[in-house]
DNA sequence: CCGGATCCGGGTAGATACTG
DNA sequence: CAGTATCTACCCGGATCCGG
């Protein structure tokens, strides 16, 4: 009887909580966004330029988590010089873009500060 | 010329980053979800039962932030005893449910552990 | 150089006790 | 009941260092 109401909510603690705990970690969504903007793949040092303020330690940790969770795959080429590590979005990672679009849509509606953000991708207006 | 591509991405650092920094904080989305499940409003101690593991300090801090950002409004009745504080979702807060549904949809597709989560709201399967 | 790992300091979350 | 105070533990940020 209550089931109907709860089914309508389409959400619950277990699934949502686990996912939020993982995706909600600082930098995680922004890393995924950067990967998308890079056409699906980026190198380690490219993130450091894009994600202003991220430290190599945190970046390394997040990328490892994302790789473990299979949102990102890592491809290291140590044969050439210098070493190239390329991180690539998987399909599940790419589909996180829907969530990010949703977040941006919400922000534009309720929180927009910089109007340019609503129109196009402003690399200049990083915090 | 590049503008077209970027516009298609429908997202950028400034808006997304600010919003993720705020909504992505630990417990924030879960608090909003609990409010929704409570029909749009909850009292302080009700959260403590629902959000297993949250401490009053963090709960208080998050609710203050949400109130400041106007996703939640607080209604305190200190005339009677015991004091009643009721927290209510605003319209912008309610619309965050779309984001949470999106997250749950993603999780069900890619990460589901407990199948019951996909069907209805399982209070029992909290971490 | 590039891709990290390590060490250290500060802030934020967690646990518990306490108060109006 | 609705928080605040305190103390601890962990995570994040900054800088440095190191192997390929």
Commentary on this structure:
The first copy, chain A, is mainly alpha-helical and 127 residues long. Chain A contains eight helices and three strands; from the N terminus they run αααβααββααα. In chain A, strands 1-3-2 form a three-stranded antiparallel sheet. Chain A is globular, with a radius of gyration of 17 Å. At the A-B interface, α1, α2, α3, α7 and α8 of A face α1, α2, α3, α7 and α8 of B. Chain A binds a DNA duplex (20 and 20 nucleotides) through α5.
List the helices and strands and how they pair.
The structure is a homodimer of 127-residue chains.
Chain A (H helix, E strand, L loop, with lengths): L1 H8 L3 H11 L4 H10 L3 E3 H7 L5 H13 L3 E6 L6 E6 L1 H4 L1 H15 L5 H4 L8
Antiparallel strand pairs in A: 1-3, 2-3
The first copy, chain A, binds a DNA duplex (20 and 20 nucleotides) through helix 5.
How many β-strand stretches of chain A?
3
Please report the two chains with the greatest interface, counting residues with C-beta closer than 8 angstroms to the partner's C-beta: A-B, 59 and 59 residues
Overall spatial form of chain A: globular
What is the multimeric organization of the chains shown?
homodimer
Low-confidence stretches of chain A: 1-10, 123-127
Q: Averaging pLDDT over every residue of chain A, what do you get?
A: 83
Radius of gyration of chain A: 17 Å
What's the story with the biggest beta sheet of chain A? 3 strands, antiparallel
Helix count of chain A, per DSSP? 8
Instruction: Encode the helix/strand succession of chain A as letters.
Output: HHHEHHEEHHH
How far apart, in Å, are the first and last alpha carbons of chain A? 48 Å
Strand content of chain A: 5-15%
Helix content of chain A: 55-70%
Q: Which structural class should the secondary elements of chain A be placed in?
A: mainly alpha
Strand order of the largest sheet of chain A: 1-3-2
């Amino acid at each position: 009887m209550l089931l109907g109401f709860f089914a309508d909510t389409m959400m619950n603690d277990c699934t949502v909580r686990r996912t939020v705990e993982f995706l909600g970690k600082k930098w995680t969504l922004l890393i995924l966004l950067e990967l998308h903007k890079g056409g699906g793949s980026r190198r380690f040092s490219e993130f450091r330029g894009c994600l202003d303020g991220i430290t190599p330690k945190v970046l390394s940790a997040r990328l490892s988590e994302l790789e473990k969770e299979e949102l990102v795959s890592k491809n290291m080429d140590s044969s050439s010089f210098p070493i190239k590590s390329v991180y690539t979005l998987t399909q599940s990672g790419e589909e996180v873009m829907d969530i990010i679009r949703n977040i941006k849509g919400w922000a534009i509606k309720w929180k927009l500060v910089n109007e340019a953000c609503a129109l196009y991708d402003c690399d200049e207006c990083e915090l």
